[in-house]
Amino acid sequence: MKLLKLSETHTENSKNKVEQILKGAMQEFLVHGYAGTSMDRVAASGGVSKATVYSHFQDKQALFKALVEKLAKERFKSVFGSNDLVGEPKQVLQELTDKALQEMLYDDEYMAFMRVVIGESGRFPEIAQFCVASLVKPAVDTLHHYFSSHPELKISDPEATARIIVGSLVHYVMTQKMMHGADILPMESHRLTNSLTDLLLFSQNNL
Question: Are 90 and 162 in a shared domain?
């Protein structure tokens, strides 16, 4: 029993160290970008030794990927709840698009992080690809599966439709928030989400 408690304490301490490192890494990536961030900076920002950082992460790329995976899991759970979307299409689509937009529009740290990824994508395409695989693909796959499981929607290409939904939301966030275009292309978010839902349900309502 005592050995078990010691093992649990060690595991908990290890998790806490990882959280410290990831928190420090986020701060450094946001300030210095991917290229300008070093493991020394991350260690100092996280309040741990450089050896501790390397005991959990092989290199900077592994650390960055771990940070992306953490963000992806948190965001996916917050927006989708689970891997399976359940419910009547109109309600599911309306709630999903509303929630996704709110998550992206009002999370300043996430927004700043995505600016870093986009800004560094030219020099480091591998980190951009990892972000697409971790942040975008799961959302597209989940919507694709949902549309495929609802033949009454009469969607001829569920995968392309899923990409249209995700792409519309991302475009809105980029033009309104990331590129500071809200005054140039003003539109309340509910107008976009309502219209996306109407477009998807159009064929069903006109059978």
Answer: yes
Tens-place pLDDT, residues 7-39 = 445 466 778 889 999 999 999 999 999 999 999
Question: Are residue 67 and residue 134 in the same domain, yes or no?
Answer: yes
Distances (CA, A) of 61 to 39, 54, 140, 197: 10, 12, 25, 39
Residue span of the structural domain in which 193 resides: 60-205
Whether the predicted model's global pTM rises above the 0.70 cut: yes
- Rounded Cα–Cα distance for residues 14 and 52 (Å): 10
Sign of CA dihedral 196, 110, 176, 123: negative
Last residue of a domain, one of 57, 83, 99: 57
Other CB atoms within a 10 A radius of the CB of residue 122 amount to 8
Domain tally for the chain?
A: 2
